[in-house]
Design brief:
Radius of gyration: 21 Å
Strand order of the largest sheet: 9-10-11-12-13
Number of helices: 15
Strand content: 15-25%
Order of helices and strands: HHEHHEEHHEHHEEHHHHEEEHHEEEHE
Structural class: alpha+beta
Length: 358
């Protein structure tokens, strides 16, 4: 299976090349978790996989709690569904705690402080209250829990998320709020550890394949041993293909044949098409994929052509229009230029704005 075939199948299984969902929560459920520290980009990542999506619909789903935002799997935010947030946190939270332990100690956040902070936050939010970060900071300070330096507050709130105390509330104007998980996700599923490993693997490989067990471990934050246990539990439902001595696992589904005309997609940097894999070489050419991702947060959004990275893009929002500025890594054919214009138009329609492309 050459790189183009891997890219083609990932585009299909991630539901990018063939949008299949009507609601944001359906996309998030299919992906299990979708990286979401860049809120605008994270909404577009879901919209890209939906039929007739709009930025307004995504905002509404977030406000209503159909999708939640919390730290899970790795020390970063993800969109998750209320049904999945409980077992995901129970499975992956301890690993993130371990990652955060050294910094927590440097900030003077011992177990007593962390548990006291959790109690203060829970009390402040009970009864359906949704408070901003600044309001929670004031509450903690009033109760004698220092929040300086700023990293201290960040780690206090992250700890509460990982412990299943708080998650996202509705946005207030443009500010994010926090709410109690028990109130935002009262029907969250509870699974045992082995069942959780199987559940995560059984949903990762169908939605991300072809992927390796190393990809799964990197994405989930699990140890490689736990990733292998999860895969072992579900591999009878998957197909294995060995390429250059490496096992790739994928669902036994057949994507539609690729058409002759090129197809472009505009992705956010943290789209699951990018962040779901340890080895991203299959989506780059001449090492582009690996070198770009090494740039981290300096990277703008990504342009794909038939599943491969061909450039980056930035957006500038106006009242009536969005301007998209591109940086291409190679010359595009006339057909590819038309495909890029079509992708840009789709993004403009998502925002409800006219679009300019340069």
């Amino acid at each position: 299976m050459p790189n183009l075939e891997i890219a083609h199948r990932r585009l299909f299984n991630q539901r990018i090349s063939q949008a299949a969902f009507e609601k944001p929560e359906e996309v998030v459920s299919w992906l299990v978790a979708s990286q979401a520290q860049d809120y605008a980009g994270a909404k577009w990542a879901l919209g890209l996989r939906m039929l007739n999506a709009s930025d307004e619909v995504l905002d509404q789903a977030f406000a209503e709690g159909a999708i939640l935002r919390a730290h899970v799997m790795r020390p970063t935010w993800h969109f998750v569904t209320p049904a999945d947030i409980g077992w995901l946190l129970a499975l992956t939270g301890p690993r993130v705690h371990t990652t955060n332990l050294s910094m927590s100690r440097k900030l003077g956040l011992d177990e007593a402080v962390l548990q006291r902070s959790n109690a203060v936050l829970a009390k402040a939010l009970q009864g359906g209250k949704q408070l901003t970060r600044d309001e929670l900071e004031d509450t903690l300070r009033t109760d004698g829990i220092p929040t300086d330096p700023s990293l201290r507050l960040i780690y206090l709130l992250m700890y509460a998320e990982l412990e299943g105390v708080i998650c996202s509330g509705a946005r207030r104007d443009k500010q994010f709020t926090y709410a109690l998980i028990d109130e935002r996700a009262p029907n969250a599923r509870i699974l045992g550890r082995e069942e959780s490993l199987a559940e995560l693997a059984g949903r990762y490989f169908p939605s991300r394949g072809p992927a390796t067990v190393q990809d799964f471990a990197k994405w989930s934050g699990l140890t490689l041993a736990d990733a292998r246990r999860g895969l072992e539990a579900v591999k009878s439902r998957l197909r294995e293909e060995v390429i250059d001595g490496q096992s790739y696992w994928l669902p036994d589904s057949t994507p539609p044949a690729k058409g002759e005309a090129p197809v472009a997609h505009l992705l956010s940097i943290y789209d699951e098409y990018i962040s779901s894999y340890k080895d991203r070489s299959a989506i780059g050419t001449a090492g582009i994929g690996a070198s770009l991702m090494a740039m981290g947060n300096d990277l703008t959004y990504i342009i794909l052509m038939d599943g491969l990275i061909v450039g980056t893009w930035k957006r500038t929002l106006g009242k009536a229009a969005v301007e998209i500025r591109t940086k291409l890594f190679r010359h595009l054919t006339d057909a590819e230029t038309q495909a890029l214009a079509l992708a840009a138009r789709g993004y403009g329609e998502f925002l409800g704005l006219q679009v300019g492309l340069s």
